[in-house]
Amino acid sequence: MRHALQALRAIVMRELMKFARQYGRLVSALVRPLLWLAVFAAGFRNVFGVAIVEPYDTYIPYDVYIAPGLVGMVLLFNGMQSSLAMVYDREMGLMRLLLTAPLPRWWILFAKLTATAVLSLAQAAAFVLVAWALGTTLPVIGPNLPMVLAAAVSSALMLGALGLLLSVHIKQLENFAGTMNFVIFPMYFMSTALYPL
Fold first, then answer.
1. Which domain holds residue 155?
2. Three-class SS of residue 60?
3. CA 184/CA 80 separation, integer angstroms
4. Residue 39 DSSP symbol
5. The pLDDT of residue 4 is above 80
6. pLDDT in tens, 23-74
7. How many C-beta atoms lie closer than 10 Å to residue 157's C-beta?
8. Rounded to 5 degrees, what are φ and ψ at 50?
């Protein structure tokens, strides 16, 4: 068991250190939701807003409505992008090295999934801080915190698992981008992240 936990720690730390060296990856992960929050939410605040209809008790500004969906967008895009790293690792031969370890294959996938979830949650936390700095109030801290954390962790794990499922079946790096867009955009635009349905 100790060896399995060391392998989990090593894989998670490798992904975190690789991410720490790629400043552009954090910036690019934050640009898309911040663009929605700063530009579109400011422009649509007076047009859309969320009217006083069920389940809302009061008028909700559009930036407050869209912010949780943008957190979901950060989790979704990072879950898919991190699984792109698995396809790259398989092409470069790193997955062969990992598979020679005396550990079950499911544990290696679990370690990759844990690393993806940790990265997704770190990027979501960075987005929440920047959104707060821009003046968007989110009910994150307070009595809702355990539910928010549970929802964020389960979403990060689920979306990371979806990305890993795709990366297991897609063999080439070039094919992954098209498949990733085919999965991401319908999921995102058919959700209630940007507008109430």
1. 2-189
2. strand
3. 8
4. I
5. no
6. 777 777 778 787 777 777 766 666 655 555 555 566 677 777 788 888 888 8
7. 18
8. -115, 115
The dihedral formed by the CA atoms of 162, 183, 118 and 115, expressed in degrees to the nearest 10: 60
Q: How far apart are the first and last CA of the chain?
A: 47
Cα separation of 15 and 160, whole Å?
14
99 contact partners, CB below 8 Å, separation of at least 6: 105, 108
Cis, bond preceding 55 (omega within 30 deg of 0)? yes
* Residue 195 belongs to a domain: no
* Residue range 90-119: mean pLDDT, rounded: 80
Is residue 194 assigned to a domain?
no
Radius of gyration of the chain (CA): 18
Average pLDDT, the chain: 78
User: Do 78 and 29 touch, CB atoms closer than 8 A?
Assistant: yes
Tokens of 27: 């910036």
Structure tokens that stand for 77 in this block:
């895009």
Residue 196 lies in a domain: no
The two tokens of residue 178 are: 């098209």
Provide the pLDDT for residue 153.
Answer: 92
Six token digits for residue 32: 């898309």
What total of structural domains would you count in the chain? Answer: 1
CB count within 10 Å of CB 130 equals: 15
Q: Which residues lie closer than 8 Å to 4 by C-beta, 6 or more apart?
A: 103, 107
As a whole number of angstroms, the distance between CA 87 and CA 109 comes to 13
The pTM of this model reads 0.80
